[in-house]
Amino acid sequence: MTMKAIPGLPSLALALALLLPASPVLATCGGGGGGGVGGVPRGGGGSFGLPPETYQAPWKVVLPGGSAPTGILVLYWFPTTVKELRSSDLQSSRPLTLAAAKCVGLAAVSGDNAELRE
Questions:
Q1: Phi/psi at 105 (5° precision)
Q2: CB contact at 8 A, 83 and 51
Q3: Measured between alpha carbons, how far apart are the two ends of the chain, in Å?
Q4: Tens digit of pLDDT for each residue in 16-60?
Q5: Which of 116, 111, 57, 52 is nearest to 84 (CA)?
Q6: Whether the model pTM is above 0.85
Q7: How far apart are CA 91 and CA 86, in angstroms?
Q8: Which residues, including other chains, have CB under 8 Å from residue 100's CB and lie 6 or more apart?
């Protein structure tokens, strides 16, 4: 019995030897799959040069005498200042945006709404 050489096998072996050591570099951050080349992109932007995804939570500001959102579950937020209301991470929260899409009401109670702040 004589073994016949398989055409292209040396080239395939060379290609695998060069590519396999680079595979940990392309792994996702934290494991768990997701298509590779994960983690924080270079330059601080989104993936592949796109801007990062942003979310705007649909807060309803409840002023004195105003009505609060209706629903089975309403989350009330009592910001202490207007600056906090405008610049808080709660404004761009992905989990809150997703919860609002599932019928959770989001109510930001204004500082002068004593009725709801009691």
A1: -80, 140
A2: no
A3: 92
A4: 555 555 555 555 444 455 555 555 555 555 556 677 778 899 999
A5: 111
A6: no
A7: 7
A8: 57, 58, 106
